[in-house]
Structure formats: C-alpha cells, structure tokens
Amino acid sequence: MKTSIPRNAISVNVHQNDDILNLLSYTPDIYNSVQNSFNLYMGKKLEEFLDKKLELEKHARETSGTHQTACLTFNMDCC
User: Fold this and answer.
1) Whether this model's pTM surpasses 0.85
2) Do residues 70 and 76 make contact, with C-beta atoms less than 8 angstroms apart?
3) What's the 3-state SS for 1-47?
C-alpha cells in the first residue's frame, strides 16, 4: 500500500509525452499528493488500531469480571 501512494501520485501528475524537466516541475504537486494520501492512510490505520484497542479493553473487562465472580462464588482466594 505505501509504495502505491507515490506511484499513483506520479501517474496522475505525469503525462505520457513528458520529459524529465516536466517531471521535475510536477515535484511539488506529487509531494503534496503523496503527503495527503499518506496522512489519510495513516489516519485510517490509527482509527482501526484504536477500535481494536477499545474492543480488546472491553473484552478484558468482561473476562476479568467473569473470573472475579467465579472466585467469589466458589470462595476461592485466586483474585
């Protein structure tokens, strides 16, 4: 995914008959496009990470509550 971001930005900005001088003139546009796309990509990954973290925390709370209830029910000294 990360390598496709610059490739796509170059493809969008460079035309079939361009030479190296034209490519260099597109550098600021290509850089901005890559930067924006990468920030969007990282934002989505961060959002996915935070969602998973919250899901795991919820699971841990639910699981630990069950374990403590079992300890109290059977008068176990494990908690």
Assistant:
1) no
2) yes
3) CCCHHHHHHHHHHCCCCCCHHHHHHCHHHHHHHHHHHHHHHHHHHHH
DSSP state of 78: -
Determine contact, residues 2/38, Cβ cutoff 8 Å.
Answer: yes
Please report where in the chains the tokens 């920030």 appear, as a residue: 39
The CA distance from 44 to 5, in Å, is 14
Return d(Cα 69, Cα 15) in angstroms, integer. 67
Q: Is 76 left (phi over 0), alpha (psi -120 to 50) or beta?
A: beta
Query: In angstroms, rounded to a whole number, what is the distance separating the alpha carbons of residues 75 and 22?
Result: 78
Provide the 3-class DSSP secondary structure of residue 76.
coil
Q: Is the pLDDT of residue 67 over 70?
A: no
